[in-house]
Amino acid sequence: MGSMASKQVARRKAISSEKRALCDLNKSCGCEFPGCDYHPSDHKNWMDGLNPEKVHINKIVWPGTHDSATNKIGIPCISRPFAQCQSLSIYHQLVRGTRVLDIRVQEDRRVCHGILKSYSVDVVINDIKKFISETQSEVIILEIRTEFGHQDPPDFEKYLEEQLGEYLIHQDDRVFEKTIAELLPKRIICVWKPRKSPQPKAGSLFWSSGYLKDDWIDTDLPTTKFESNLKRLGEQQPCASRKFFYRVENTVTPQADNPILCVKPVTGRIRGYARLFIAQCLSKGCADRLQIFSTDFIDEDFVDACVGLTHSRIEGKA
């Protein structure tokens, strides 16, 4: 019992120290970067506002959400706080400016996060279709994966093609160098990551797992995650040289050996430092590698930071 208590005291000290370190870094270095003062006039149509003929796919800093479809996961006030990473529906995330969705499914096509489940993936698809019907030039990266420990939904590629086929952008390495205007009227890059089923074939409507990569660091320590994200990003090639999307997640996650297991207070340790991260990318010379940047509980300021850097790239200022 005594050793367990000592371990918890040490853990709390480590968390407190790392929170303070990020705060101090923010105070000493600031969070200014090219485009940091840019604010899109319409978050729902921010890609259109940047001019689709000028926006190349490999110049976009894509604002994404982590565990996107968890707004109604589990049981309210009981299990939901342990798995909820977003409070908005998929439609309202897209309206707010999200352009990369992280959707986890289980065998019966219900959205899930670990052992907790939510609504049918049909809800996600309908929200996406509604958003697309209301906009003209917004491109979405839709990542759908079979959650760890679950089985692939049967005939899932067929289902996705039936639902989204008219909007899907074919798997093609040349897409990265194209502008949004060159892809229209197609609107969705769908990355399908099954666990046991065959990966999507080259040239198909779906993109295989190798086209969306990340280095997931599972920790609730904010500075550890922040520095690891910078290090791993710095090891990547510049966006202009890559033929895949690379994601950095501005999140920390609850750990089983810590008494605080609810997502919101834990991820809040790093959530407010997205602008600092971008500024540090510039400072360390790896800003040209930043591509997909995702978060829990997305807000407009996070979107503005991503769009601002995108705008600066397009204007040749970053």
TrEMBL record:
UniProt protein name: PI-PLC-X domain-containing protein
SMART domains: PLCXc
GO biological process: lipid metabolic process
GO molecular function: phosphoric diester hydrolase activity
Domain called Phosphatidylinositol-specific phospholipase C X: residue spans: 51-193
CDD domains recorded: PI-PLCXDc_plant
PROSITE patterns on file: PIPLC_X_DOMAIN
Listed InterPro entries: PI-PLC_domain (IPR051057), PLC-like_Pdiesterase_TIM-brl (IPR017946), PLipase_C_PInositol-sp_X_dom (IPR000909)
Organism in which the protein naturally occurs: Cephalotus follicularis (Albany pitcher plant)
